[in-house]
Each structure stands twice: as C-alpha cells, then as structure tokens.
Amino acid sequence: MATVHLICGLPGAGKTTYATGLQADLNSVLFSLDRWLVTLHGRYSLATVGHEEHTRRVLACRALMWDVAAEFLRRSVDVILDDGFFFRRDRMRHVDFASTAGASARIHFVNTPIRVIRSRLRERNASLPPHNFEIDPETLTGFLGLFETPTEDEGAEMVVTCDPTQLADGRPTGSRKHDGV
Q1: Can you tell me the distance from the alpha carbon of 177 to that of 156, in angstroms, rounded to the nearest whole number?
Q2: Domain 3-177 class in CATH
C-alpha cells in the first residue's frame, strides 16, 4: 500500500532537507509547497500580498499538488508532501484524502528547537535559496502562535524527528510512534 508522508514543522526546521532524504530512501515523489508557490507566483512577503491572498495561493497550490499526488498514490507510489501542515485540520484532511486514494498516511514532525530555527532563518534570509521565502522574526512569531503540534490521535502513524541537519550522517531518522491505525 502506498503512503502519503506529511512533512510538518515550522519554517527553518529542516523540513525540506528531511523530505529530500526521505525521498531518496523511499524512491518516492516529492511535492514541496514553497517550490510550487515561488514557481507560480514568484517570491513575495505576507506583508505585500496580505494573509487572505497568501492563503488563497497556498490552497490553490495544495489542490494542484494533491490532484497529481493522488494519482501517484493510486498507482502505489509513495508521495511526500513538504508543506509545513501547521494546522491539525489540514493534516487530518490529507489523512482522509490518502484513505480515499487507497493509501495510508504518516505524519513526520520535524521538531527543531526554536533557537536553532531563529538562527537558521537569519542565515537563510541573508542568502535566500531559489525556492524559499524570507521569514522575518515577526512572521516567525506569528507562525509560532498558529502552529498546532501534531498528536497521535490524527489518524496517521506519527514520526517525530530531530533537526536532520544535526544528524551525523545527514539521513532522516526519527522515533516512530504508531497510533493504532
């Protein structure tokens, strides 16, 4: 049975690094929300476009990504969604989508200390990679207030991992917790 892997965590936590390592390990297909957003809309800031427009863009990209991802799942190919999944309702919605596509779901929470995230975002903002957004300290503070830490009762297997860049070999690892699904 194919699995959709939901990569969850704050900006700068190491989600894309983790997702890329996971993709290599699983020979799967990776969809990165930020890559789609930047490709379709260019780089922008929340302050420039506003929360409502950013949300519209995110939801449109998620819908496009899911349409393609679901087809891979139906063909028994694992899919990785590097999205952030700040909200429980979004994670649970994708768990339901996976079930409808005949797949299982696994939530990977990249749990990186906030001090590491703040430091990393300062460095990243100074030399922004092609498919990343600048995240200023105020925006990160806002995201901290929005982020809902995943729990084991969201209908999917849980994997909690540390910051993948701190691992000796750079490979994603985590403590797997199964919630009975």
Answers
A1: 10
A2: alpha beta
Q: Could you tell me which of 95, 98, 84, 4 has the C-alpha nearest to residue 36?
A: 84
Provide the residue ranges of all domains of the chain, joining segments of one domain with +: 3-177
Q: Transcribe 60-91 into DSSP letters.
A: HHHHHHHHHHHHHHHTT--EEEEEE--SHHHH
Q: Helix axis angle, 114-126 relative to 137-146, nearest 10°?
A: 140
Residue 46: strand, helix, or coil: helix
Say which residue the tokens 């990393």 belong to. 120
The pTM assigned to this predicted structure is: 0.87
pLDDT digits (tens, 9 = 90+) for 62-98: 999 999 999 999 999 999 999 999 999 999 999 999 9
Residue type, 110: V
CA distances to 77, 123, 179 from 72, in Å? 5, 35, 25
Position 180 pLDDT exceeds 90: no
